Amino acid sequence: QKLSDALGQSVVVDNRPGAGSIIGTDLVAKAPPDGYTLLVVASSITLNPSLHKKLPFDPVRDLAPVTQLSAFPNMLVVHPAVPVKSVQELIALAKSRPGQINYGSSGTGTGTHLSAELFKFMTGVDMVHVPYKGGGPAVIALLGGQVQLNFATIPSVLLHVRAGKLRAVAVTTLRRSPAAPEVPTIAESGVPGYDHGPWNGMLAPAKTPRAIIARLNAAVARIVHMPETKAVLVHEGAEPVGNTPEEFAAIIKTETVKWEKVIRAAGIKAD
Questions:
Q1: Distance from the CA of 55 to the CA of which of 84, 90, 133, 235 falls in 20 to 30 A?
Q2: Rounded to the nearest 5°, which phi and psi values hold at 68?
Q3: Of all residues in the chain, what percent are helix, strand and coil, respectively (each to 5)?
Q4: Quick one: which H or E segment has residue 151?
Q5: Residue 48: other Cβ atoms inside 10 A
């Protein structure tokens, strides 16, 4: 609604889910570069080149970044029966029991899965991945003790943490989350450089005129920092970003390279 007001144009949301965002992304990548067809996509766009042998588009060549909308950390949580309260205690436990600790995720190649694989990659621990069909079933499995830990989205577990049904160990971004500022980051807990902040961003078809990209960037960046928009994002465990197209492009490039290394090392393939 706010973008409609800012641009003086009706903005219609056309949900095209499926294939880890590939279906919707392909539609925009092949759309006319006139500023009337835009893509709002998750950070899975940086994973897909490594997860899929052949994509119907090139994420860098066929799309023009507008701005990153928001960033949201995952939270490393454990079942209360797991005798760890810190990242270092978890690393020690996992190294003493290689292949015996199970972690749940919302599915292969999802953000919750990649948070765990990056953790394994950077710490050398051996944990077993148990994928579920969505974040809800993964959290239910953790609550029931069927898995020992999860790198879950904050909204899906925060109430359980507050109720003492799960124990929060750390968050996955370099900065602490405003939704749970008392929970340390993995990086500050002895794994320097660890950073996984899934995000949402806006892109346009490649060759969209720079003047259109600049106008969209200015409007969207202002909207995400409005108090009412920020309140919604923070409630969902996210932070507004609204960076420049160049900054967003650099993030996409850096993360695509980072995840290629992690995915190759872990042998992850799309389902």
A1: 133
A2: -80, 130
A3: 40, 15, 40
A4: strand 149-153
A5: 21
pLDDT value at residue 248: 97
Whole-model pTM?
A: 0.83
What pLDDT, on the 0 to 100 scale, is given for residue 10?
95
List the structure tokens of 217. Answer: 């960037």
Q: What are 11's two structure tokens?
A: 């903005």
CA 49, 269, 99, 156 torsion-angle sign:
positive
CB 241 within 8 A of CB 70: yes
**20, two tokens:** 């880890």
Name the helix (H) or strand (E) containing 42: strand 39-42
R_g (Cα) of the chain, nearest Å = 19
DSSP 147: S
Q: Tell whether the model's pLDDT for residue 17 goes beyond 90.
A: no
What residue spans of 124-226 are helical by DSSP H? Answer: 135-143, 154-162, 210-224
H helices of 163-244, in order, are 210-224, 227-235
